[in-house]
Request: fold
Amino acid sequence: MALAPVWAQQIDNSNAPEIPFVSVPDYLRYSPEVNLGEVLAVAENSKGHLLVLNHPGTAKSGPLYGNATTQVLEFDDDGHFVRELGQGVYGLGYSHSARYDKYDNLWIVDKGTNAVTKFNPAGYVTLNLGRRPEGYEPHEHITQQEARHVDGYFNGPTDVGWDQDDNIFVSDGYVNSRVAKFDKHGNWIKSWGTYGSDPGQFNLPHNMGVDREGYVYVADRTNRRIQKFDRDGNFEKVIYLNVPYDKTRQRRT
Reply:
């Protein structure tokens, strides 16, 4: 009988309770002439306002990922449209995730522009991490094996989180196989992770979260697992979920 490594944790979901929910048809009250397309993320601020990250059109429009392919839409707690943020912002092209921090600042992670943009509650950009590539150099042309990590820059970032000291963590991402850490002012601190399947390695770190104790949890998508680290990037453990999946749809690497 094979034993799991000491760093691995298997979670049996056979007795997991169902999460109750109530479906509310047509909750979001937007223009009848406008339809939501590919919705990548939703987030809620302290007012109960709902932020919807929407890709309304083609996924590849324009020389990079055209700005028209990302909408940042805010609705109030009754579903009424409030405003659209970030129109024309250079760091928005083909956004991947949206999150509010504890101060109600909105953070948008954009895999198309390789940037993370912070908006204050008034909707103004106050911080940008990474840099949008000049010209057209899509990350699909670079494999994960060919990726070269550069401090302060991303290649297909996917998500963002913060610890209690407001340090910033970014999962990076579709090409780079790592987690990047910045201080609260956006100064680079460090990164950890390489491409692979061993503990501490990643194969598309797709989402992440930070708990109240500062532990960083990374959804290692293609490795089908969650990895836990401390705030300095030291590996803690791997968590596997006991769920079925279709092997014929497994991502090729």
Remarks:
- The CA atoms of residues 31 and 81 lie 9 Å apart.
- The chain is about 0% helix and 35% strand.
- The mean pLDDT is 87.
- The first strand starts at residue 8 and ends at 11.
